[in-house]
Amino acid sequence: MASESTGKAWAGLFGRAGARRGDAEEPLSLAEPAPSGSTYATKALKKFLATLTSRPDPVLLDLGPVIGSNVSFFGEQLGCKIFVEDVFADIDRYERAGTTGDLASFLSKRFAHAEGSIDGILCWDLLDFLDPASAQVVAAALSRMLTVDGALLGFFSTATARDATFVKYVVVDDLNLRHRPYGPQRMRSRVLQNRDIIRLFERLRVSDSFLLQTNIREILFRKPAYLASP
Question: Which of 28, 180, 184, 230 could be joined to 37 by an S-S link, Cβ 3.0–4.6 Å?
Fold first, then answer.
């Protein structure tokens, strides 16, 4: 079922050797100005990229807002098709309407991608802002869409922050991300413990996990063949 917030797709914007023509649905004028914000190291992004570089024409799903420089970066690195599905915008819409009790039902129909059709998923810190029922629905959908041996990158806060906001993660390079808070202040739904995270992604396995000084745990999941079917 098509979502209320239609995702955007960019196909073959760049090859690994440089720019090339593609069938992008949106022009490259989407690229944002030079990003501002604090820059932090990332240990998992390089490993995430490494899982996809050997795949011909991989398909990438980004669950954050559209960031033109990110589209360019992943296109150049991977020569991939990129789907951007801004689930943060969905959360914000339901919060503003005061109908968050209906969010899990909406998210259960949110993703139209076929089972095993996505090679890599950028989940960012999405699950930190979802209630337990919604988080369960999204984790199950992402696990279903991920292809065998595909990779999912998720960030999880290890500390409650009263002034938390949604964050745009702008890729500087494979070792650094620029954090750009946006939107009103909002509390994270909860601090997920490791056991909770593992339970959410029961069809995936942890490949790498890094606890950063920013109180963020980066986890790289992979989908083994023996867990591909429920």
Answer: 180
